Amino acid sequence: MIERFTAGQQDVLLVVDIQNDFCPGGSLAVPCGDEVVPVINTLAAKFAHVVLTQDWHPRGHLSFASSHAGTQPFQTIEVAYGPQILWPDHCVQGTVGADFRNDLHIPHAELVLRKGYHYNVDSYSAFYENDRKTATGLAGYLRERDFSRVFIAGLAFDFCVRYSGEDARREGFEAVVFEDACRSIDVDGSAAATREQFKSLGIRCVSAETMISSKLMPL
Ligand SMILES: [Zn+2]
Question: What pLDDT is attached to residue 116?
Fold first, then answer.
């Protein structure tokens, strides 16, 4: 039998990076990234508590290929904290590309968590930047709000969703990923690697349909 979930007061939906640049027409478009928006809108209406993340880079950010002479997007270089994939310029602070999608409709979201704003560190995870030391503050926020279960949806499955899920577990939260409310970039088999990693960490990948209406939220 398929497990069903009902959101309670201890549950939060983390909606990862539903921004113009990650959708078709954007500078770092995740294939079919726009398809998750209606799925996430429906999901979010079933949660009393929703947190949105927003990738938010300064111009000339370390993760941009354009910041490193002679490099191309999707190439990996060594930086102070280890390997870093280089990306096209994306989600630059204050630009349309960094805006949330117009069709994302979650007026009751309680927090917008921005990440990736330090010049010299990229941030895939909503919890820790890529140096794995700099905290975004999200774990403390979730603990203070007494959340114990983090449901995750968004872009991209194999990067920001993956690292956010792993860190949620590392921080002691239960983590559940709605895989059909995510899409992948899929660099060198990264989507399959993400599924394996989730399995080994006890992070469940489920369909958005397993979420039934919450008693807390009128639909
Ligand atoms: Zn980014």
Answer: 96
User: How many angstroms separate the CA atoms of 96 and 193, rounded?
Assistant: 32
Q: Is 91 a catalytic residue?
A: no
115 counts as catalytic: yes
User: What is the Å distance from ligand 1's center to 104 Cα?
Assistant: 19
Rounded to an integer, what distance in angstroms lies between the CA atom of residue 171 and that of residue 200? 16
Active-site position among 115, 122, 158, 167: 115
Counting as low any pLDDT under 50, the low residues of the chain are: 219
Instruction: Report how far ligand 1's centroid is from the alpha carbon of 151 (Å).
Output: 21
pTM exceeds 0.90: yes
Q: Is 17 a catalytic residue?
A: yes
